[in-house]
Protein: Glutamine synthetase
Amino acid sequence: MSTLRFKAVEEASKRVPVEISVPDKFPSEYFGKYVFNRTQMSKYLSKETMNTVLRAIDQGVTLQREIADHVAAGMKMWAMEMGATHYTHWFQPLTEGTAEKHDSFIDYLNAPGGDIIERFSGKLLAQQEPDASSFPSGGIRNTFEARGYTAWDPSSPAFIIEDTLCIPTVFISYTGEALDYKTPLLKSLSAVDKAAVEVCKLFDPNVKKVYSYLGWEQEYFLVDQALYAARPDLNLTDRTLMGHESAKNQQLEDHYFGSIPPRVAAFMREVEFEAYKYGIPLKTRHNEVAPNQFELAPIYGETNLAVDQNLLIMSLMHKIAAKHHFKLLLHEKPFAGINGSGKHNNWSLGTDTGVGLFTPGKSANENLRFVTFLVNTLMAVYKHNALLKASIMSAQNAHRLGANEAPPAIISVFLGSQISAVLDKIEESSDDNDITMEDLRKMKLGISHIPEVLIDNTDRNRTSPFAFTGNRFEFRAVGSSANCSPAMNALNAAVASQLIEFKNEIDRKMKEGMKKEQAIFDTLRLYIKESKPIRFDGNGYSEAWKEEAKRRGLDCETSVPLIYDAYVSEQSIKMFEGIGVLNERELHARNEVKWETYTKKIQIEARVLGDLSMNHIIPVATQYQSLLLDNLYKMRMVFDKEKADRLSREDAALIEEIATHISAIKTNVDDMVEARKRANKIEDARSKAIAYHDTVEPFLSVIRYHIDKLELIVDNQMWPLPKYRELLFIS
Ligand code: ADP
Ligand code: MG
Structure:
């Protein structure tokens, strides 16, 4: 009998919800308790320092070292009063998750050997030089200094985790290239701010700043810790590399929005209590479609902060899950045959005057502004659809996209019938039968119609990777384990670049004497025509759409390493360099990292599957086969040959079936090892990733197929790994 598996099942079935301590205050009373937010700043900083910092946050003004000293002093006092003894620069290298290196506040007062004090200067706040040479840089640091340095990002507030003050920072090389996700994100946010403000001024001269907003919806799975521990594939790759579908999975859709299981509810509540202390405004929690799959979402916020908060919540969730004897799975496709997990990125732009730029207005002027931003976004997504796909692509997400559950590996935009009708009307109008401001006013885009747009959306936008949902776009192709930055960076950069082009066009037309509204209309009409291929309101899961998308010239590439090429296309380089977000060298370096990561992920999966096949599955299958053989043999001793053969026919067939699967597994594992050896000899990161994709990865599903067949044959008592029905239905 497979003892580990049954022990795990027993342990998991006996669990009860973990007691949690419920705060005795309302969330509003302890919200942001661990964050050095504006309220805390006002207590610990002088008015002058505070104002300078706020100017840095709101207007991007550079902070002087002197000010940094003042901020550091205030921050240290607050942190020490909160019990912190250490500080760290908290940054986002091009790996998964975040990085930190803790230093204590202690220092000698004067000379070594003398008295000790707690010290934290502006210099330490502003800059740190972690010996971070093992982080991926795509070759940027090999040629120069091995080290990079981290620098304070005042626009995301510092916070305390346990005994450590965490300071959000960017991570850059000595030669100034970005080595992280945050640096280019901040640049793209600033680019879209500038570009959008210029366009906003066509409609309202008072707009001084445009914010990019992000509201992420985070999907995840929870699996009991004991069962997880009995699955080496989950341990090492975050997904099940084998496992036959459970007889019941999500067919009945009885899990979606169902009542939350008590152990999970306790976990969710604790996550919320913690999140509030970190100023993360969690709003929504519910069961997702697949068994043991769940979702949480906060109220949206400024994109840089929202990205940091998402990273923070992922790490909090891991910790809290462990307390509840769960393992949190953020992998995009941990189980075959049921839905994977994504992270829908709800994205919008809004002004400092409180206007949502994707919110239809009441007046003609407001509606023209709305259509302007909508159409420019369409154009940006159209031109850069390949790049946007590259921005969300990973070895893991490739399993999710294109399956019958998530958007296909083609980027298109869903607008819904109402908005589409508006655009069609503009498109059909011609130069000499202009749409007047009066027409616009009558366009019935008023607020009162939004519910109608939403009703229209809910049913159909599920298959769309980029859907308009009434006052924002929802970029749904982002992976559940991903850092939101690359997606938000590509999107904001593409939109910024498009808005600049639009503004230039309007300026040109107006200089030639055209009226402003006319110039805007004529330009939008052209854009609507040009960007038409990106609009698709139909069923994104259908085969017909793949054909249609190809005809429309949209990017239909499905190989992950080749999808990354879009980052270094002439068009992308021109766009990113044009707005100063990433230069060619950085783009190439980042792709190196992406290709390497892809290769490593597949390599690890291949190794784990090879090991499990040879050391876990084949021995057990052989053992069961021997039992059958033994039985067959003994039958012959009891009955005459003809009768024994007749009675043992089924056993004989099973023995043969097992032999066939074992031999197929063995041959394919050997071939996979050979394929890996050949691929490993390749130097060039891109070619190597392609080799892994084309020649190694296909073995994973072939080998799995035979193992899953064996799972159906081999005695349940002997099967070593927890089965899907156990992983997914015990909670
Ligand atoms: P649904 O499941 O219908 O998509 P949810 O309420 O689960 O909606 O999540 C929607 C997310 O979108 C939330 O994080 C919400 O705060 C966010 N959101 C709402 N309005 C905007 C907006 N204008 N810009 C960005 N995000 C928004
Ligand atoms: Mg949503």
About this structure: The CA atoms of residues 520 and 601 lie 48 Å apart. Residues 213, 215, 217, 284, 297-300, 346-348, 356, 471-472 surround adenosine-5'-diphosphate (ligand 1) (CB under 6 Å).
